[in-house]
Design goal:
The chain is of the alpha/beta class. The protein has a domain of 125 residues: Response regulator (Rossmann fold), CATH 3.40.50. It is 32% helix and 17% strand. Strand 1, helix 1 and strand 2 form a beta-alpha-beta unit. The radius of gyration is 16 Å and the shape is globular. The two termini are 24 Å apart.
Length: 191
């Protein structure tokens, strides 16, 4: 398994390096899912990875309350919940929580593989998507992704979330490649 960095996902330094041997014990996680079986599975996997501080909420509304109370390093959130679904939860976090909490990495877990649903999640501001069935390796890989390759946070009047551009290079050579080139009100944050 890959070597992990020694800073928390919220940007604060963690007390000791997170490594393959140590697991992820310095990280704090929040699971937002209305399915108790899935919550139990995710909790078991996170504890197996070494996390000692795992919280959960059964819907988006209570997820916002727990998020504000415990200030986790990352969130695992189900797409399909009631009364507030995962998209509503992500939008509330991105638009209504103060920084740096608004910038928290959110991994959306979904059984919906349709491209439009994944695009909806991306456009709401999720950091990563994880398709069901969840495997221990896939979940671990997503967590490593948000630790080792954090993305800038972008906030515009229409979007708040991690920078959606993943590729370093591009075949585009024109002048106005970035949104902020034409929109001076866009805010870009390094996290």
């Amino acid at each position: 398994m890959p070597q992990l960095s020694s800073r928390s996902l919220s940007g604060m330094p963690i007390s000791s390096p997170v490594s393959q041997r140590d697991g992820l014990h310095n990280l704090k996680a929040l699971i937002v899912d209305d399915n108790s079986h899935m919550t139990r599975l995710l909790r078991t996997l996170l504890i197996a990875y070494g996390l000692r501080d795992v919280h959960d909420a059964s819907d988006g509304q209570s997820g916002i309350k727990v998020l504000n109370a415990v200030k986790p390093d990352f969130v695992l959130c189900d797409y399909d919940m009631k009364p507030m679904n995962g998209i509503g939860f992500v939008k509330m976090v991105r638009r209504n929580c103060p920084p740096p909490l608004a910038w928290i990495p959110i991994i959306m877990i979904t059984a919906h593989t349709e491209l439009r649903r994944i695009q909806n999640a991306r456009d709401a501001g999720v950091t990563e998507a994880l398709l069901k069935p969840v495997t221990p390796r896939n979940l671990y890989d997503r967590i490593v992704q948000i630790i080792e390759r954090p993305r800038r946070f972008v906030k515009t009047p229409q979007f708040a979330g991690p920078d959606r551009r993943r590729r370093k290079g591009s075949s585009y050579s024109g002048p106005k490649r970035r949104f902020e080139d034409d929109h001076p009100d866009a805010e870009i944050f390094e996290i």
